[in-house]
Amino acid sequence: MATIQNIKGMRDHLPQAMLLRQHIVATLQQVCERYGFDPLQSPVVEYAEVLEGKLGDDEKLIYRFEDHGGRQLALRYDQTVPLARVVAQYAGQLVLPWRRYAYGPSYRGERPARGRYREFYQFDADIVGSSSPLADAEIVALLCEALSALGFPDFVTMLNHRQLIGGIARTSGLDEAAAGGVYRAIDKFDKLGAAGVQEELLRSGVAPRAAEQILALVQIEGDAPAVLEELAARLANDERAVAAVANLRAISEALVGLGIPAERYTVAPRLARGLAYYTGLVFEAITPHWPEGSLLGGGRYDELIGQFAKRSIPTVGLAFGIDRLHDVMEQLGLGPQATGTAVAFVTIFGPEQTQASMALARELRAAGINTLLCLEPTTALGKQFKEADRKGARFALVLGPDELARDTVVLKDLRTGVQEHVERSSVSAKVRSS
Length: 434
Ligand code: AMP
Prior knowledge:
The chain has 15 helices and 16 strands. By secondary structure, the chain is α+β, with helices and mostly antiparallel strands.
């Protein structure tokens, strides 16, 4: 090996980055559990045939290998196909509707870029076995609460329905076969803008009048009730689009009932979100601070989860991309800024005070305070303070002969430099309350 290096597209996360990532995951877990979701973990490795035939063109991105026993295996591409396997395999043990969350790495042989990696972590939340619009609304509400809890100041969740785009194509005089081209063109709206999409539509063979009509429809904007009213009026002749509008109306009314502020979501008929397996609601959360794309996305996919069980199992869910959340939060300065886990650093005045300092560290730890103990009793105090500061500890504590005689501790606030004598008996309470 010429150079010591990690694999391209797979990242090492040093402590400061890990603290932010752990904060993100803990927050998502807390919100999921508040909504009554239960945890699931499945292996990173699956039989290759479990993943094959589900991803369309993306199948070429799967990492495959043969193990020592000659089995054909693959690293999971996401946590959705493994969920489908789990649902089929444990059918008798799962109580539907089943709300599960799952967190872990997935692997895709992509060309690495900012926000796109070959090993990346997803946090999924899905409701398996319900076609109720309340299930869709719970997922969207959960995502809004999670992004708010992470401190995102101005995100918006765009909602759309697969049958709306179909309806837009049909209402513009196109048949089902042409709808795919319309879908792909609209998918590029945020990247190409209206003029670019129009060109793309014309290139895919859509007549100029139809292209204009499609563009007018997908650009309808406003709050959810207003957009839905306008779509209902314009797509009144297409039965499936009318049903889609009714479904989106039920979902957005449920969001009001769940207490999600109106500025957090909108109906955006231009949101296409991939072709593959969505059957109903689709959504993406966006923020102006991340113009590169969405923060996360999801939707309803009623046919995918049941493919191993060989029956339709209606499911709605989403995947938070931890790496993307991490990149954006780092850029915005959101989340904990800590460089380490320790709050307190117990110094050792000199070799004779080692036992006393160990007792103090024990006491702080027993009180639930993250505490570092100096490991070199002969090091000058000034150097120990410097180490405490570099570790990101808020306080350094000193127990010298005078303090021991008076049953006090010197507490130095490393942020302000202020030093005070504190009664030994109240030192834990003082550190905890600061
Ligand atoms: P998908 O499974 O493609 O719907 O992706 C769901 C979420 O996972 C996306 O919104 C991204 O945040 C994240 N994601 C997908 N692919 C990657 C990747 N290659 N690198 C980092 N994050 C990814």
